[in-house]
Amino acid sequence: MNQETAVPEARLEHFFRNFSVRLSPTPRGARLARLLAAEQLRSWGLPVDPARQVVAELAANAVTHGRVPGRDFRLTMYVIADTLRIEVTDTCGDLPPRPQDPSDDAESGRGLALVEALADRWGWGPGLRPRKTVWAECVLPPVAARSKSAPLA
To answer: What CA–CA distance (Å, rounded) separates 98 from 117?
Structure first.
């Protein structure tokens, strides 16, 4: 008698979750990065904030300070254990990100300060020339805290 043991298939998306998209270096591309990130986080059953705001700030910086005409930027998000890592890669590697100290009445210049306040860790690194990647990591709440009754957005 030949017997086989049925083993439930392991669903790969429970072990490794990632998302990556290339976007145009325009305000519309930055907005789309924020919207796509929020939708992807919802589909993974993860809290949308503060990651949505981190994506918004990093994408805005990519299209404002890292824009090179004709070269897209890339948004990548992945989950490893209890950490969501957000990466934004642009094609202006010769301009490293620098937090600013804007005046009280300045209308811009607070993006990296917000990322620093919202993320658990952040930094940047050079990529293949001419790229650089700015990243931020957000530690996710324990699974028990992410109950179905908790709002995701």
So the answer is: 15
Cβ of 113: how many Cβ atoms within 10 Å? 14
pLDDT computed for residue 152 by the predictor: 47
Neighbours of 40 (CB within 10 A): 19
CA 93 to chain centre: 19
β-bridge mates for residue 79, sequence order: 17, 84
Query: What residues have CB less than 8 Å from 33, skipping those under 6 apart?
Result: 21, 23, 55, 56, 59, 75, 88
User: How confident is the model over 127-149, as pLDDT tens digits?
Assistant: 888 889 999 999 998 863 444 44
Distance CA 22, CA 88 (A): 10
The residues facing 135 across adjacent strands are 87, 123
Calpha distance 37→92 (Å, rounded): 23
